[in-house]
Specification:
Order of helices and strands of chain C: HHHEEEEEEEEE
CATH architecture of the largest domain in chain A: Orthogonal Bundle
Chains: A mainly alpha (about 260), B mainly beta (about 110), C alpha+beta (about 170)
Strand order of the largest sheet of chain A: 6-5-7
Structural class of chain C: alpha+beta
CATH architecture of the largest domain in chain C: Sandwich
Structural class of chain A: mainly alpha
Helix content of chain A: 40-55%
Largest sheet of chain C: 6 strands, mixed
CATH superfamily of the largest domain in chain A: Cytochrome c-like domain
Radius of gyration of chain C: 20 Å
CATH topology of the largest domain in chain A: Cytochrome Bc1 Complex, Chain D, domain 2
CATH class of the largest domain in chain C: Mainly Beta
CATH class of the largest domain in chain A: Mainly Alpha
Distance between the termini of chain A: 58 Å
CATH superfamily of the largest domain in chain C: SoxY domain
Largest interface: B-C, 31 and 37 residues
Radius of gyration of chain A: 20 Å
Oligomer: heterotrimer
CATH topology of the largest domain in chain C: Immunoglobulin-like
Number of domains of chain A: 2
Largest sheet of chain A: 3 strands, mixed
Helix content of chain C: 10-25%
Strand content of chain A: 5-15%
Number of helices of chain C: 3
Number of strands of chain C: 9
Strand content of chain C: 25-35%
């Protein structure tokens, strides 16, 4: 009887072998590239110059929100965290991170909202609202140049696995997984656009297409719509797990927030 | 919430040509877009930008819906004397923002 | 937030033939076939400026004056990554002295809903007859830059720009 599972196992391997050419080849460490390197020089120039980078306008707004008192406790972020340049340095490079109370990972936007609810007794800010993006961009900008280390916490392991599974999973009417473009075809083009590796090094970022700042979740939802899949809702555990996998996949790459992309 | 970013050199030599860069947050709604239900979104743009150097206008621009969101405008001037640059943006729906920057000319 | 879709409707005419061709290649990898007629989504489009509108807009600036070719240089990427934000620099050859300087720079387009992009007024104190900004281009088209010098003369240049479409845009569901 013991041999049956072995036979099934072998059969699965054979099946896997057959589909292998369509399965992902993960990008070797040394070959990883930021989306920056795929953009045109004139777009890179916008990111290179803080005065030209419209994402910096949101960072400025975030700096002022950081000092605004909010909620029933009338407390500002700065009242607890003081100088963001010190207290927030490196924080974005560790997100999404495990939240003990929730027992699951939360992204930076969710962390800011949890902090508002728990410590300021304020209402959470809406996903993609100017305020939430501005605060997130301000916090993330403090980690500019810091190497991403998301996923070091062993509690995150099962969630990274789930995120990776979603990344590999074919979905939508086009039946494409993230991996089919961003692992296997990142040196090619999709119409006029370069296919990048999907390294989320600069979020929230200013996308020329959006003409505004947007979160990684907004970008992921665009991608899902692109393959004609039903995008997950903002804040859905699946999206956060995907973010977590992507950030852990980008470990060692420097944070660029606020990046500029086409 | 309107933020502006201005880049003017803090110091310059007399007679030096300096570059001034300005970035103002604004949606620059064209007036040609429609909502999901088909209604036209009214135009909401910055229509005018100007710069004064110690009170005298040195640069002015008329902007149209074809200027990208968060208008970025750069131009040059000769650093003649120490003082102040005043920047003004005026637009639809009573939009009026200003900013200033100081320069020391040696 | 979901406005970029409408924006595209208003600002662009997708080049569906190119997209289809490409997608059919791309889909080969997924084992699928064409059809994502996809992204042709946005066939809505406003009236675009006509050559006559462009000519009128230019005449409103130049009047009856003859517009000569030369002295003006327009730097703009010939192949644009995204038409919503296109960096552009106009520079005019001029000594920029009190007697001989650039009075103004005017930029026009051929196919946006409106022919005007911007008017920029300089003077002898500018030191350099040059401005930069970022513009929107609804489609591949011709951009015209015209400068008026202090002697009243007008000079122009034009550049053809190809605008590519983003592959993955916002939610279309």
């Amino acid at each position: 009887m013991k041999s049956i599972p072995a036979i099934i196992g072998a059969a699965l391997l054979v099946t896997a072998g057959i589909v292998a050419p369509l399965l992902a080849t993960e990008i070797p460490q040394g070959a990883r590239r930021s989306g920056y390197s795929f953009t045109a020089p004139e777009t890179q120039a916008i990111q290179n110059d803080d005065t030209a980078n419209p994402g910096m306008l949101s960072v400025l707004d975030g700096a002022s929100l950081w000092k605004d008192k909010a909620g029933a406790l009338s407390k500002a972020c700065a009242d607890c965290h003081h100088d963001a340049g010190v207290s927030m340095r490196g924080v974005a490079a560790r997100y999404p991170a495990f939240d003990q109370a929730l027992g699951r990972p939360v992204n930076l936007e969710q962390r800011i909202n949890l902090c508002r609810v728990r410590n300021q007794q304020a209402t959470p800010l809406a996903y993609e609202s100017h305020e939430l993006l501005a605060l997130t961009a301000f916090v993330a900008e403090q980690s500019r140049g810091v190497a991403i280390e998301t996923g070091a916490d062993p509690q995150l392991e099962p969630f990274i696995t789930k995120g990776r599974d979603l990344f590999m999973h074919r979905q939508g009417q086009l039946n494409l997984g993230c991996t089919n473009c961003h692992d296997d075809n990142w040196d090619k083009h999709l119409a006029g656009s370069a296919i990048t590796q999907g390294q989320p090094t600069g979020y929230p970022l200013y996308r020329l297409e959006w003409q505004s700042l947007g979160s990684l979740e907004r970008r992921l939802r665009s991608c899902m719509a692109g393959v004609r899949a039903q995008p997950y809702d903002y804040g859905a555990p699946e999206l956060v797990e995907l973010e977590l996998y992507l950030m852990s996949r980008a470990r060692g790459m420097p944070i660029e927030t606020p990046a500029v992309r086409p | 919430m309107a933020s502006a970013l201005i880049n003017v050199p803090a110091k310059a030599k007399r007679g030096e040509i300096i570059e001034i860069k300005t970035l103002m947050s604004h949606i620059m709604e064209t007036g040609y877009r429609r909502t999901a239900t088909g209604e036209l979104i009214p135009r909401n743009i910055i229509t005018s930008f100007s710069c004064r150097y110690n009170g005298a206008e040195i640069f002015r621009a008329d902007l149209f819906p074809a200027i990208a969101a968060n208008p970025f405008i750069t131009f040059f001037t000769v650093a003649t004397e120490s003082g102040k640059f005043d920047f003004d943006w005026i637009g639809d729906n009573g939009f009026a923002e200003s900013a200033s920057a100081l320069i020391t000319v040696e | 937030m979901r406005d970029s879709l409408n924006e595209k409707a208003a600002m662009r005419e997708p080049d569906t033939s190119t997209r289809r061709e490409f997608f059919s290649q791309f889909l080969g990898l997924a084992g699928g076939t064409a059809a994502l007629g996809a992204v042709s989504v946005l066939t809505l489009r406003p009236a675009e400026a006509t050559p006559a509108m462009l000519a009128t807009a230019i005449r409103n600036v130049t009047g009856a004056a003859v517009v000569k070719t030369g002295k003006v240089r327009l730097d703009i990427p010939p192949l644009v990554e995204n038409g919503n934000t296109v960096p552009m620099t106009v520079s005019v050859t001029s000594p920029m002295t009190p007697d001989d300087y650039v009075k103004s720079i005017h930029v026009f387009n051929e196919k946006n809903p409106q022919p005007n992009i911007g008017n920029f007024y300089l003077g002898p104190r500018a030191g350099r007859g040059q401005i930069s900004t970022r513009i929107r281009l609804a489609d591949s088209q011709k951009i015209v830059a015209i400068a008026q010098l202090s002697d009243g003369s007008f000079w122009q240049t034009s550049v053809d720009v190809i605008v590519t479409l983003a592959a993955c845009t916002d939610e279309v569901i």
